[in-house]
């Protein structure tokens, strides 16, 4: 079984954990060899997405994804010499669990007191806001089990799937018209930049369900 770390932004984390109509899908750009197969060799998306081709970076049905999100950790900063860069650089020392603290998550809308400031040196332990990419596995609280994986153009999303993506309702055309698909188009551009929806790229469509934790 494959276990894959995947970054989710704060609104998407909130959509995953909500009790009513939680987020159960995510779409990510197809890159690398899989994209080469789709464009250069003209293989069908159905064929490229087959498990035996091992192209999906998110695994396949039965595999697991653990969510990396923005969080707060208790710790301090110290300098360490980087042989690669030939100079000292700052390194964060996570002391959260060893000091009896618990991680705090930005998606919960709370912020611990005594936030540290790097400009003051950061030597004394304090709470620090940490980007999702730096989340250690010990801080992970959300585990997902992959239900299915497929490839499609991002604009192929329908209204049901847009709701499963956690997309809000948004107006399109006149003020009286709108859809969750329009909301997803706005969400896609907020993450991938202006004009990215119109490009209509290939996307991995990963359907998942939330589970209580990692399984072996």
Concise description?
This protein is an alpha+beta fold and 216 residues long. It has helices at 10-17, 32-39, 45-48, 159-164, 180-192, 196-199, and strands spanning 3-7, 25-29, 64-68, 71-82, 87-94, 104-105, 126-130, 143-153, 170-172, 174-179, 202-211. It is built from six helices and eleven strands.
User: Main beta sheet, described?
Assistant: 5 strands, mixed
Spatial ordering of strands, largest sheet: 1-3-8-11-2
* Helical fraction: 10-25%
* Mean pLDDT figure: 92
Distance between the termini: 8 Å
> Shape, please?
globular
Category by helix and strand content = alpha+beta
User: Helix-strand pattern, N to C?
Assistant: EHEHHEEEEEEHEEHHE
CA gyration radius, whole angstroms = 20 Å
Structure summary, number of beta strands: 11
Task: Bin the strand percentage.
Answer: 25-35%
> How many H/I helices?
6
Oligomer type: single chain
pLDDT < 50 runs, ≥5 residues: none
Describe this structure in words.
By secondary structure, this protein is an alpha+beta fold. 20% of the residues lie in helices and 33% in strands. The protein contains 6 helices and 11 strands. It has helices at 10-17, 32-39, 45-48, 159-164, 180-192, 196-199; strands at residues 3-7, 25-29, 64-68, 71-82, 87-94, 104-105, 126-130, 143-153, 170-172, 174-179, 202-211. A hairpin with a 4-residue loop joins strand 4 (71-82) and strand 5 (87-94). It is globular. The mean pLDDT is 92.
Helix and strand arrangement:
Layout: E1 3-7, H1 10-17, E2 25-29, H2 32-39, H3 45-48, E3 64-68, E4 71-82, E5 87-94, E6 104-105, E7 126-130, E8 143-153, H4 159-164, E9 170-172, E10 174-179, H5 180-192, H6 196-199, E11 202-211
Parallel strand pairs: 1-3
Antiparallel strand pairs: 2-11, 3-8, 4-5, 4-6, 4-7, 8-11, 9-10
